[in-house]
Amino acid sequence: CPICQRTLTDRGALTRHLRVHSGDKPYECSMCPAAFAKPHSLSTHRRTHTGEKPHTCHICDASFSQRTPLRRHLLVHAGEKPYACPFCPAAFVDPHTLQMHKRTHTGERPYECRVCRKRFAQSSTLGIHMRTHSADRPFACSACPAAFRDSRTRDNHVRTHTGEKPFGCALCAYRFSQRANLVRHMRTHTGEKSHQCDLCPAAFACKQALLAHRRSHLGEKPLKCNLCPASFAYPQNLHDHEKTHSKRVACPVCDKKFSVGTRVRTHMRTHTGEKPFECSICNKRLARRSNLTRHMRSKHALQEASSEGTSGPAPTSVVAYS
């Protein structure tokens, strides 16, 4: 190569390599605006539309669209994580994953959208973003009218219908419907809080929590109720508020109405005095799980598992009675 002096095996390989320097991408996807410098890259990309995963693990049922993720997956079975992050305790099975992880510390975003110039830390994220510039949504949900631009997003959505949670924590019994939620949950074990607030000393395990926290400084309430003028800073607050517009379940003692039956059962404890949640350290009993969580943090300085995993079994610090 006359630009970087790299030596290649034949003229065709040199021609393909030169596109790295020129930015030429002659191989265009027929299903979205993506384009590639190599035909092999186009073939691999097409699998994001077709859902094809030809590379299968011989130890478990996992399958992958590319050979490289399969190699990384096999290291998980071997338990090897030789590539350590210089900024935090995280370690990874391959250098590529380490490189992507380091961008969460450095803020580097080397992949740019050709249409809107938005930048991304990972090429796969850029590929998903490119589909927002196309109206094509070939992957339909079989349970509802929703349709998606790629099979991965469709598969994640389908789990909201099936309740499937294929991603299990290796350190506790919690399971998750999406890999990203598992990654966030793992930080409750490692204590990693790599997202620092620039307005106060607070730090968070995930970017979403940091963005939500910054609203407490800025006074932002971008989430608006469709039925009244109320607005909120956090999605959960908006979700809880919207239920007040459709209260259907009444307490049989005082006739107070609730949007869901679980709220009625919790409310009934104010009448019965029932306290089913017991602290395993001091044996104090409380009526609500959330009260027990606050008690554990304030009195015993323990960090409970993330609320994203509430569908798993009760944490070991909780004794619950039916």
Automatic annotation (TrEMBL):
Skewed-composition ranges (Polar residues): 304-314
Phylogenetic lineage: Eukaryota, Metazoa, Ecdysozoa, Arthropoda, Chelicerata
Signal peptide feature range: none
Compartment(s): Nucleus
Domain called C2H2-type: residue spans: 1-26, 27-54, 55-82, 83-110, 111-138, 139-166, 167-194, 195-222, 223-250, 249-276, 277-305
An example Gene Ontology CC term for this record: nucleus
Region (Disordered): 294-322
Source species, domain of life: Eukaryota
A molecular function GO annotation: DNA-binding transcription activator activity, RNA polymerase II-specific
Family annotation (InterPro entries): Znf_C2H2_sf, Znf_C2H2_type
Keyword Coiled coil: no
Identification of the protein by name: C2H2-type domain-containing protein
Family: Belongs to the krueppel C2H2-type zinc-finger protein family.
This protein's record includes keyword Transcription: yes
Keywords from the named record: DNA-binding, Metal-binding, Nucleus, Repeat, Transcription, Transcription regulation, Zinc, Zinc-finger
